[in-house]
Specification:
binds zinc ion; Jelly Rolls; alpha+beta
Length: 207
Amino acid sequence: MNCNIIKDLLPSYIDGICSEETVATIEKHTEHCQGCKETMQMMQQQPTVQLIETNVEAVKEPFKRINKKRRFQVITAILMTFMLTIIGYQVVQEVGVVHQYFFPKVIAIVEIEDGMEDWQSISFTDFHFKDRDYLIYDRLFWKREIVNDANNERDVLLRVKDEKGNVIIDDFQISPGKSVKLDGLKRKEKYFFEIKAPQGRYSINAV
Ligand SMILES: [Zn+2]
């Protein structure tokens, strides 16, 4: 049989998934063909199997018998793991910052005690856990939407004031899980939000 066909069949032969007939053909061929025999022997020495065996040996050895070079390798591996963990953690943090840049969002938790009486100002908490009593659309990526969180139980009334205290957007209602787009608001100006709602706790998000 042609050597190329034998070499094509060798991986399956080594994995033990050939038919008896093919096995017989391959074995008969490699008895006489030195080239294919060597290829087969090379393929049978699977590097992964060897690596696992080496590790098993290392584990079996008592720690004091591990030579200096080996110990150095172990310590290096531990340090590398430690460093990678820290780097990984920082990357995750950076991703958070990047995410916040492209998908800005601030959250306000508002506690309304005497429901529907007065307007109550809203303080938003940003990604850095800083509270601000105003919103500023300082980046292009703000959608300029106000969301009445889906977990809230009631509709809320909101209104928007500018820095001088003028009402820019008069009261508008948002149902739980709904949002309102505030197209009229300009970039880089401070806007103050006020809420009127029945007694309760509300989560208002600005994106
Ligand atoms: Zn051959």
